[in-house]
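Risk register update: the risk of archive-format incompatibility is retired. Evidence:
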Amino acid sequence: MFQFTTFRARVFWSLVPIFCVLLVFIGFGDFYEQKRLAEDEIKGRARSMAENLAYSGRLGVLTEDRWLLEAALQSVTGAADFAYVWIYGEKWKPLVHAPENVVNLMRLKPELDEQGKNRLSQHGEIHFRTFFAGSQKYVEYIVPVASTQSNSSYELQVELAAGGRPDISQKRQQTIGAVRLGLSMDRVDAHMGSFLQWRGWSVGLFFCLSTVAIYIFADRITRPINRLTEHAKKMSQGLLSLSIPVASRDEIGQLSTAFNEMGRALNELYLSLERKVAERTKQLSAVNEKLAEASEHKSRFLANVNHELRTPLSSIIGYARLLRRETEGQISSLQRDNLEDLLRNAERLLALIDSLLDLAKIESGKMEVHPELVQIDELVQSAVTTIEPMLNKEQIRLVCDVPVDIAPVYTDGEKLRQILLNLLGNAVKFTNRGEIKISACQVNGDFKLAVGDTGIGIDNADLARIFEEFDRGPLASEGQYHGTGLGLAIVKRLVDVLGGSIAVESEVGKGSMFTVTLLIKKSQNGSL
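Archived output:
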């Protein structure tokens, strides 16, 4: 009929058990009430028949006239529910009974029990009981036969012959016998069976009608909710302009009205947001155009700076080296130290200009990759030769852990050398004593190049920004270490250009380890 997880199903299956319980309760109550009324009716009829028989049979009991008693029995033996009757005389002697085989038929004892005799003789009480004989149920009344005490039986006969009951209000009653009358309750059972069958059909029909009514009621309640759900799904898909028809003014109607107002508000908000997004997009496009123009100007500026500064710096470096060589032993130590400072600062400035130019090329996408077979041991040795003059050999030891037979790598050798030099320069700058270690290996199709040091280390909070441009770290910002903050940024950009990755592990006070991982590629001739 419908899914059991829906709200309509929960409403339906919540009401159906309640109606079932009510129907069963009402059915049982009606059944027992009908049974009580039927039993009360047959009990009242049995008592009335017994009392009438006791009254009409008084003369026969008094005279023990069998013919009079059998004539009196004619009034009860023809009844539909009649089962048996006894009329007792003096000293509770059975005078007549009907039917003739009542003793054998129902296995009843004709004698009264002593308790019943005492109640009848002393109090003149009517005795009542229900019992089963075999599989049948009977109701039995024992009614005393009373006579007024008079001087002679002739007076009683005269009064009876006069056509009415004698006035015995002023005369003392005397129990002279009893009437024992039993009626069968089969007709009550048959009536209750018919009633139960009829009630079963009526309850079943009422249950079916109630089920249909409950279903219609649940559907009527949940239909607006389902309509709200469908419109909510459509609104979640972007159809905010839809409106739910409001068919009533009850709580569901109020909810539909509120839902429509919410939809209109959301639609207006969405349209307003779209307009604002369009405006912001237009503004961002203009800003991006300006940024692109500024980036172009920056690239031109850097190219001009490279041209305008690199040439005189190269001349300064060349003249300084020539002057240092030609004046060997001819100038004082102070003059030679000043010349060394001049040469060192000029080379440092030239390296800064080269770094800025490399960064501009990477950002503009003009950095080209020229792959070749690179001999790793030769590349590492070249980098070591370049970096050794910067070391304080008394405090720092440079260790190379590169296998001699390591296979060449097909990559851009110049960029890989620059990566290694920048990592070594960073290690030299932040290591005061200990060692700097270079290691290289090939593992599972990857080439790994690592530079470790025993320097000051990097705090975990700073690891996320060490590859950002112009980030020099907290100590460098305080003036303890010099640098531009471009070395690691260029390393990260060059590693990305080569299609690799870089990882760093560091602990404050113990040093850092930078590991570059490149995928081993095959050259055009198929060799590694």
